[in-house]
What we know:
Layout (H helix, E strand, L loop, with lengths): L1 H11 L3 H150 L6
Helix pairs in contact: 1-2
Amino acid sequence: KISALLAYSYAALHDLENSEKYAALHDSIQEHILNEKVFSNIEVMQAKLKQEKLQTLNAIQMQQLQQRRFWIILLLMAMLLVATAGVFYYVISKRNTAVLKTSNALQQQQIQSLEQQKKIEATDAIIKGQEKERARLAKDLHDGLGGMLSSVKYAFINFKVSAALMPPAAT
Length: 171
């Protein structure tokens, strides 16, 4: 501002040479001040831009980190789910194997019980058949023996009657 006042003062005194010299000095100082402000603004803007870039980079890195965490958690959950399914499959297959063994043992017992029952029924049938055969034989013997004894009795009676009617034989 002083150089501008000097330039005006010399111009008022009609000293154009000194007036132009101080006016040029004033312009040079103003340009220098303006350049410093511009450079200062540029530096501030560059600092702001650098800070924004860092913030953007940090935000991108945070987002990538969150995505990685998400995928890691998802992968761990999937692995946990698969492991749990494997354990359940193992437990169920063991249980099914035990049930199958028990079922097979029960079926074998039922088969043996049925075979035993069939043997008992067959033995009962044989015994009943033998008893029926004995009863039939006893009945046949009784019926046949009674008739035969009656025949023998009548034969003896006839023999006795015919022996009594016959004359004694000479000896």
